[in-house]
What does this fold into?
Amino acid sequence: MFIVGLTGGIGTGKSTVAEVFREYGIPVLDADVMARKVVEPGKKAWHKIKKEFGDEVFTADGSLNREALGELIFKDVEKRRKLNAITHPEIYNELFWAAVKCFFQGHQFIVMDLPLLFESGSMLDYLHKIIVVTCEVDLQLQRLMDRNSMSESRAKLRIAAQMPLETKCERAHFVVENSGTVDDTRQQVVRIISLLRSSRAHWKLRALSGLCCAGLACALVFLGVRLHQWRQTQLSQW
Ligand code: ADP
It folds into this structure.
């Protein structure tokens, strides 16, 4: 199995692209979904956030107020760094175990939807290919404002907090241009899927895990034989 990273800017169309992969039976692990899961009440990250940021970022029922926290961290780089230090290890842990599950299910490749792939940099070494979803900046702004019922100034602040789209595109193996219709985008994604399906890269990990299993089996047989021999020696001494 190999891993394909899916990234882009906020509102450029990552979820729209991810949906096409899912339709083709390819698992998509969404870092945003994991991020919501790790801050559920009572979880380790939830306790740490409470200690670091106080009650003001929680609602009356104890769940995290993502809007309030979002406002706080987008204005303050140091607070953003602290929040990332709390949540990122937990998110990567969730992603790791979900990926292990997909490996044992026999998938050729999986997609990880990682909005801040380049900003955080942590997952880059594990990705075989990177897809960046982009669109014209004024479309990105408009779609973000419409989807999140957000004011123009707030949407601009959110976009400005991320790495520029051109820089992301320069570092991609595949760029999906999502300024046209959803159908145009779908066609681009289908082409990428067929290219990825023709790859042989998944055999590397399969061969490696096959070798590890064979090595483990040999070690167990060797230990079993030695134990048997030791028992025989003990019995003959009696
Ligand atoms: P992201 O996951 O990158 O934040 P989304 O996939 O949620 O972005 O897209 C942002 C918004 O734009 C959504 O409301 C989505 O329905 C809309 N959208 C995405 N692609 C297109 C498109 N090609 N044409 C029109 N609207 C689109």
